[in-house]
Specification:
Helices cover about 75% and strands about 0% of the residues. By secondary structure, the protein is mainly alpha-helical. The relative contact order is 0.05.
Length: about 100
């Protein structure tokens, strides 16, 4: 008597999808638990929350100011490279640079 091999069960698309969805749900649960822990630990003192939000606002304002200054300086430098172009383009760029500097 010979033993008969049973056919292997093929993985269907739905079973693979189910497993990946379960993995994603586990990761999401871990992330949400971590977020809840941070939220609960962080918001125990209102004074601490107000202070941290104030400091965050100050640094956000300073970063915006410095970033804007760098961007405007780069634009002026880039436009100054086109001042020598003929055909009225150079004059237009020169007027734009003068208006930005004043």
């Amino acid at each position: 008597m010979t033993t008969r091999k049973l056919p292997l069960r093929r993985k269907t698309k739905s079973s693979r999808f189910r497993k990946s969805r379960l993995r994603r749900n586990r990761k999401a649960d871990t992330g949400s638990r971590l977020a809840q822990d941070v939220f609960n630990n962080f918001y125990c003192s209102r004074r601490k929350v107000y202070w941290l939000n104030f400091i965050r606002g100050v640094f956000f304002g300073l970063g915006s100011l410095l970033g804007g200054t760098v961007i405007v300086a780069l634009i002026i430098w880039l436009l100054s490279q086109f001042v020598d172009l003929p055909g009225g383009i150079g004059e237009f760029v020169k007027s734009v640079i003068n208006s930005m500097q004043n």
